Amino acid sequence: ISPSIEVFDKDSIHPVYTDIVNLLKSYPDIELSLLQALSYCFYEVLDNVLTHSEKLCGTVIMRYQPSENIIQVLVADDGIGVHKSLTANPNYNSMSEEEAIASCINDKVTDGKGMGFGLYCTSRLIKNAGIKLEIHSCKSVMSYNGESTHVYTDEHWQGTIVYFELHSNKDIDPNDVVEN
After folding, report:
1. DSSP one-letter string for the chain
2. What is the torsional sign of CA 104, 108, 115, 168?
3. Which residues pair with 8 in a beta bridge?
């Protein structure tokens, strides 16, 4: 199945989100409970681009591999990056780039423009049904496998890339991902 590649902005975020979720809904072998949790996290990651990157648009790529039972999602922007965004909040202004990228999946960690819940819920999705979550911003990459986090240095990326892989056939409790 070929990937879905879309550019989105404030006017097209809802149609892009709906198109991709509806595409995934069209595959009956994807667990409904997983799709419920994924759809919430997916919107939050898209919204993060428009809320925190200081850019007007982002790009999303979604690929479903039914033979492998894997959903792959990548959301990218060329904005200010996690560190610059997070350290705009006085509570985090002394954080290093590595500390900022490692902490961005913790609950209520935010630059103040959002609630700090989107990447946290996405990390909980990975814990329940995921293979991996990677966030690449500037020269730092955070990799989370559902149990442990690893931060390392890589080539510079202007902005932020959020990439995650999920088992599409995993039945989960969406409340374990998004409380209430």
Report:
1. -PPEEEEEETTTHHHHHHHHHHHHHT-TTS-HHHHHHHHHHHHHHHHHHHHHSS-SEEEEEEEEETTTTEEEEEEEE-SSHHHHHHTTSGGGTT--HHHHHHHTTSTT---SSS-S-HHHHHHHHHHHHEEEEEEEEEEEEEEE-SS-EEEEEEEEEEEEEEEEEEETT----GGGTS--
2. positive
3. 58
Measure the CA–CA gap between 91 and 110, rounded to whole angstroms.
9
Phi/psi for 143 (5° steps) reads: -120, 130
Burial of residue 110, with CB atoms counted within 10 A of its CB: 0-12 exposed, 13-18 middle, 19 or more buried: buried
Percent of the chain whose pLDDT exceeds 90: 82
**What percentage of residues in the chain have a pLDDT greater than 70?**
99
Task: Identify whether the C-beta of residue 145 lies closer than 8 Å to the C-beta of residue 132.
Answer: yes
Residue pointed to by tokens 């428009």: 50
Give the tens place of pLDDT for each residue, 3-20: 899 999 999 999 999 999
Q: Which residues, in sequence order, are bridge partners of residue 70?
A: 65, 167
| Cβ–Cβ < 8 Å for 18, 146 | no
